[in-house]
Amino acid sequence: MNIPQLKQVLTDPDEFITNSQLKTLALEVLELVPLPGIEGSPLDSVDILEVVLRAAVGTTSVNGVTTNTEDTPNREPVMDWLHTLNKEPMLDAVNDILATLTMSVLDRSRSRTVCLDFMDNPFHGYPDDETEFRRMQVRDGTTKCHRYCTAFVIAQGKPLTLAVEPVDGDDSAADAVERVLARVELYPFEINRILMDRAAYVGEVIGVLRAVAPPVFPVKTGKATLREKLSVNASYMAEETICEGKEHEQTFPMAVHITYQNGDRGKSGVKATGYAAYGLEDRTPPQVARIYTDRSRIEKSYEKFREARALTTTPSPTIRLFYVGVGFLLEQLWIVIQWAVLAAPRRGGRALPVEFTFGDAFLHGIEGVLDDELGWKEKHRTNGVGLPAGCDHGLG
């Protein structure tokens, strides 16, 4: 994809990068997402995307932006434009941009470990189609959520997002994983293994994962024979079968890893964790556990992504998906700029700048520039009267 201003910054940076440049780069990336728009409208896609970008960096809504600015369209025309988004071309574009950003800072010659995950975003509302959302444990006052299957790679300490796919209410986990891996397989590097959480402990999902690369994931402990294998005091390698006698039967090498909880999180005693360890039969259980711990870094990525997610009450799943895509794109852009332009070169890897944080530096910097350009209101008309007669303010 052609991203000329970002290319210039990455290959020949000035002594400093300004907040205005960060805003320009963010818009350049977002403009690659196709937004058909409304024929004959006096607006253009940049007008709309500036509002969306301001909503994302401020974790607010389109209505919050248009209400509090002087130089933006009203909410209605902005939302009318956003309703012209076409889900599949938009999703393809988001994933293509993620791939372009990833490969701008990734060594193409090395094989990679890919991490997969399912991410839930709580959903409040009443969609037109009940199959749009999924069910989760109660969070933020709801059991409904929009679910996304994501793929990451950890490189030079950076959790880079490789692909994002929505998981509709009637989607199976295996179908979602297959779609995400189909996108990841387009990358120009070899996948040496896949790390996933316990959602992988399904025979059909394991089959999809194994078709691409050896998977590693923790097992669930509901099966009696499995609980027996985990009732030990020393680490060892074993073998386990899932879906025995059924269509998706899978037999896998299992690493039983023993740790001791010395008051960690109020717990103590022996803890046994079983890992499906495809391709790691020659490793020890502690080595398998250490390989799997790389996956924990993606939780930090989710925390940052949520700092750049625009709020909305729209029932449109396409617009909601677009806001999710914007959040991931902004985080990815920050990672690329941070590592390529701001990190200090040194032996053994670059030293990331601690002051260039995602929220306070990157997002807030873009927010300040947009506030000036969009005419964020700095004063609000009062009633000129104050408290009504009879009120005792008690302020002395």
UniProtKB/TrEMBL annotation:
Source species of the chain: Saliphagus infecundisoli
Protein name per Swiss-Prot or TrEMBL: ISH3 family transposase
Domain of life: Archaea
